[in-house]
Amino acid sequence: MTLPQAPYTYLLGLYLGDGHIASHARGVYRLRIYCANAYPELIRHREDAIGEIIATKVSRVACVGCTQVASSKHWPCLFPQHGPGRKHERRIELFPW
């Protein structure tokens, strides 16, 4: 599987900075990225990047002062950096594909 490099790199950076992957029922994982409401163009850009990586519905969840951009699919497969514990306490490595 070949992924578009620019959107993947962008989403990886967002995941490591303002996002997290949460597990849900039936083995579904959800990538959630938090975006300040002051930058609606960045919210759209994040939605577009997710759509380029995984063609699926991207949802917005309104929070106080921010919007959560989220999507469900197999994110741990795409981001092998995901794992137990806090991101800043884990070893983050780029794996060759």
What labels would you give this structure?
single chain, 97 residues, four-stranded antiparallel sheet
Report what the structure shows.
This protein has three helices and four strands. It has helices at about 5-20, 40-55, 75-80; strands at about 20-25, 30-35, 60-65, 65-75. Strand 3 (about 60-65) and strand 4 (about 65-75) form a beta hairpin. The protein is about 35% helix and about 25% strand. A four-stranded antiparallel beta sheet has the order 1-2-4-3. The longest helix has 14 residues, at about 5-20. The chain is globular, with a radius of gyration of 13 Å. The chain has about 100 residues and is of the alpha+beta class. The protein has a domain at about 1-5 and about 20-75.
